[in-house]
Amino acid sequence: MSAWRMPARPTGVSGSSLKLRAMSLDDLPFVMQVEKLAYEFPWTEGIFRDCLRVGYCCRVLEDRGRLIGHGVMLVSTNECHLLNVCIHPSYQRRGLGRKLLLYLLEVARKGHATVALLEVRRSNKAAYALYNELGFNEIGVRKNYYPARRGREDAFVLARDL
User: Fold this and answer.
1) What does the H/E/C string look like for the chain?
2) What amino acid positions are annotated as catalytic residues?
């Protein structure tokens, strides 16, 4: 895979050009590029390495060979925890986060999970709306969960049945 280069104007993304596959260590430089562009407080490469090492469900989303998103999920006994769902900013608001999330939920279902959990920043209204549309409900708040420019930010804990 070649280095990710930002097109002058991103072309449309068609379903036939998309590919979801397992993340590998070789993907980490590209994953980190997307992560740093999408988040003010990105995960570190070490976190992704650890997730791969312990066998979490780590997937990447490609469009025509370019890595444009990734997801990380832990599936255990009867639940899954969505830990990271990320789409390159130039590809957001095209339904790709939804596709990635639905794919991960299907993997969890096949792994016999019956409930999905996740945290979302209180300020991330777009993600909260997407999760709500997909049937997630707020079940709690984690105070001071995420780093923020001024201290810490609360996270909503969301869940849905699978």
Assistant:
1) CCCCCCCCCCCCCCHHHEEEEECCHHHHHHHHHHHHHHCCCCCCHHHHHHHHHCCCEEEEEEECCEEEEEEEEEEECCEEEEEEEEECHHHCCCCHHHHHHHHHHHHHHHCCCCEEEEEEECCCHHHHHHHHHCCCEEEEEEEEEEEECCEEEEEEEEEEEC
2) 119, 131
> pLDDT per residue over 85-113, tens digit each?
999 999 999 999 999 999 999 999 999 99
Rounded Cα distance between 65 and 59, Å, is: 14
Chain mean position to CA 116: 14
CA distance 94 to 112: 29
Question: For the whole model, what pTM was predicted?
Answer: 0.89
Is beta strand 115-121 parallel, antiparallel or unpaired with respect to 79-87?
parallel
pLDDT grade for 15, boundaries at 50, 70 and 90: low
Domains of the chain as residue ranges with CATH = 19-161 (3.40.630.30)
